[in-house]
Design goal:
The protein is an all-alpha fold. It has a single domain, classed as Rhopdopsin 7-helix transmembrane proteins (Up-down Bundle), CATH 1.20.1070.10. Helices cover 71% and strands 0% of the residues. It contains eleven helices and no strands. The termini are far apart. The C terminus is likely disordered.
């Protein structure tokens, strides 16, 4: 009991930190006109899914564990079912928007800016519509065929695959796209300088890889394919404690450490607007500039 209480404290802190940092990041990306572009709009949507997922988890905990004397395994009210539905829905949207990020980045790397913009609204529709469809189907199957407890016990339920299945597939596709991004990064390195005995090449590629992992959710490959009988305590620690800080990490890497964002904040802070070429017109997108890898892709 003490261990699970500690886990809850850790992920509560993690989600709280993530909500705060993501809210600031969303405000920054929306407030600055020069940062308004399809790429950053997708970032904002992803940030929102992290925020909504964290809020949904807090609400579910508040509803399910509102009284210590109640056995939540047999607890069944409309409120608790709604809280579980929203928790699963926003969890799935979060994974889908991680996939959208990967798809859009691949579009930018492999095609022109006009093609990337053409795909934008289809990606938005997919990011919100796909989870909505599967969540609605799951709700109907639970209501008509498995209306027991609070819909939060899914260990032996075949209908749980309506939620888990798309998530696992999205993680698998993300992993393939992640490998493709690494392949492109490797090709973008100067072929004349590629020497696997050269430690600087390793550092540059490794830095880019580490920056991409939290965005594409590649680490969830490990979580989804852990054996079902793996220690519950270990799974909770990996999925809740580490996952709760993912939103914070994404906000830091893709907003606060972004060179465009820092330039715009510095421009606003110092009031030096004259004589500067707008960053969004001359900056080509890549993984955050700290990666050290230049890629000739389309602009924002």
């Amino acid at each position: 009991q003490s261990y699970f209480s500690t886990i809850k404290i850790i992920y509560t802190v993690g989600y709280s930190v993530s909500i705060t940092s993501l809210t600031i990041a969303v405000t920054v990306l929306i407030a600055f006109r020069r940062l308004r572009c399809p790429r950053n709009y997708i970032h904002v949507q992803l940030f929102f899914t992290f925020i909504l997922k964290a809020i949904a988890i807090f609400i579910k905990d508040a509803v399910l564990f509102q009284e210590e004397g109640i056995d939540h395994c047999s607890f069944s009210t409309t409120e608790c079912k709604i809280s579980v539905v929203f928790c699963h829905y926003f969890m799935m949207t979060n994974f889908m928007w991680l996939l959208v990020e990967a798809l859009y980045l691949n579009c930018l790397l492999l095609s022109s800016l006009s093609h990337g913009r053409r795909y934008f609204w289809w990606l938005v529709l997919f990011g919100w519509g796909f989870p909505t469809l599967f969540t609605l189907i799951w709700i109907l199957t639970k209501f008509y065929f498995e209306d027991t407890a609070c819909w939060d016990i899914n260990q032996d339920s075949p209908y749980w695959w309506l939620i888990k299945g798309p998530i696992i597939i999205s993680v698998g596709v993300n992993f393939v796209l992640f490998i493709n991004i690494i392949r492109i990064l490797l090709k973008k390195l100067d072929p004349r300088q590629i020497n696997f005995n050269n430690s600087s090449q390793y550092r540059r590629l490794s830095r880019s890889t580490l920056l991409l992992i939290p965005l594409f959710g590649t680490h969830y490959i490990v979580f989804n394919f852990l054996p079902e009988y793996t220690s519950l305590g270990l799974r909770l620690y990996l999925e809740l404690c580490i996952g709760s800080f993912q939103g914070f990490i994404v906000a830091v890497l893709y907003c606060f450490l972004n060179q465009e964002v820092q330039t715009e904040i510095g421009r606003r802070w110092h009031g030096k607007r004259s004589g500067l070429v707008p960053v969004w017109r001359r900056t080509r997108w890549t993984v955050p500039s700290s990666s050290g890898v230049k890629m000739t892709t389309s602009v924002c």
